[in-house]
Amino acid sequence: MKASELKSKTGQELREELIALLREQFNLRMQKGINPDGIRPNQISNVRKNIARVKTVISANRQSEQS
Questions:
Q1: Ranges of each domain in the chain
Q2: What's the gap between Cα 11 and its chain centre?
Q3: Does domain 3-66 have CATH number 1.10.287?
Q4: Would you call 35 helix, strand, or coil by DSSP?
Q5: pTM to 2 decimals?
């Protein structure tokens, strides 16, 4: 997921994307607890980075609305 793709989305779409990513992160943590060898370590870090990207775009949108 690229930041340029996220910038074209509306606020509601970004919130939905964030919720989906948080659920995915939770599921990966549960899978890791049950079967540590079942997931690749980079999956968790990729999801965390995507969450950060979405939160950054949401924050930037709020800043631009206030200005």
A1: 3-66
A2: 14
A3: yes
A4: coil
A5: 0.89
Distances (CA, A) of 28 to 12, 13, 32, 50, 58: 24, 23, 6, 14, 24
Q: What is the DSSP letter of 38?
A: G
**Taking the CB of residue 41, how many other CB atoms lie within 10 A of it?**
9
Long-range contacts of the stretch 54-63 (C-beta < 8 A, 24+):
54/6, 54/14, 54/17, 54/18, 54/21, 55/18, 56/3, 57/3, 57/6, 57/7, 57/9, 57/14, 58/11, 58/14, 58/15, 58/18, 61/11, 61/14
Ordered per-residue pLDDT tens for the chain, 67 residues: 788 888 889 999 999 999 999 999 999 999 999 988 888 889 999 999 999 999 999 999 999 888 7
Alpha carbon 26 to its chain centroid, in Å, reads 12
